[in-house]
Amino acid sequence: MFLSMLRLTTVFLFGVSCVVVAPGFDGPEFPWYLPAAIIVGGSLPMLFVAYTAAPYVNFVHLALPVFARRSREQAIQYAKNLPPTATLYINTMRFTTIPRQTEVQLGDLVRDRKLFRPITFRNTNPKPVPWWQGRPLREFYADEKSKPGRQTSAFYPELWEHVYRRIQSNQPKTKHGK
Q1: Does residue 109 contact residue 121 with C-beta atoms inside 8 Å?
Q2: I need a surface site. Which of 3, 8, 80, 99 has the fewest CB within 10 A?
């Protein structure tokens, strides 16, 4: 919620700087470059938030096989011994605050880190998506602990710690000769 409000606020700030502030400085008494500088300055917060907030994960859904859906205990036991082919659906937020879902295999996720962007893991083998969906996401940021939430029959917050630990233990795949 906070992230979507922050994104909308920066878009609003950019819109106000383009529609209200910059035209007020378009005249002979001001330098010719001032309106353009105001528009560029108004876009900087929006671009910064768009770049740094892109990898934030909202939800992670683990596709459970039939035997693991029978009880909570079996789901937890499955999460403790996840195969590399386990499927995760990672939900992030697009720039427009519309949800975006990325399907990944657990074995394709490896630990990663960047200096200027919050990243905790990376998808080494992204699945191709249609051209109109943009590039597939490769970098994600998620806390190691699950956020508390209302208990339901399909919400198991304790599974995330096992999944996260498994992602952090995955080693990047190396090609022969490198």
Answers
A1: yes
A2: 99
Hey, what are 120's tokens?
């905790």
CB 11 within 8 A of CB 100: no
CB atoms near residue 62 (< 10 Å): 19
Q: Judging by DSSP bridges, how do beta strands 109-111 and 121-123 pair with one another?
A: antiparallel
Task: Give yes or no for a contact between 76 and 155, defined as CB atoms under 8 angstroms apart.
Answer: no
Residues forming a β-bridge with 141: 56
Whether 100 and 114 have beta carbons less than 8 Å apart is answered as no
Burial degree of 144 (CB within 10 A; 0-12, 13-18, 19+): exposed
Could you give the CA distance from residue 171 to residue 55 in angstroms, rounded to a whole number? Answer: 20
Cβ-contact 121, 60 below 8 angstroms: no
Q: Which pLDDT tens digit goes with each residue over 2-40? A: 888 888 899 999 999 999 999 999 989 999 999 999 999
Q: How far apart are CA 41 and CA 113, in angstroms?
A: 29
The model's pTM: 0.79
84-132 tens-digit pLDDT:
999 999 999 887 778 889 999 999 999 998 888 888 999 999 988 888 8
Token readout for 45 is 């917060």
Q: Residue 97 in contact with residue 7, Cβ under 8 Å?
A: yes
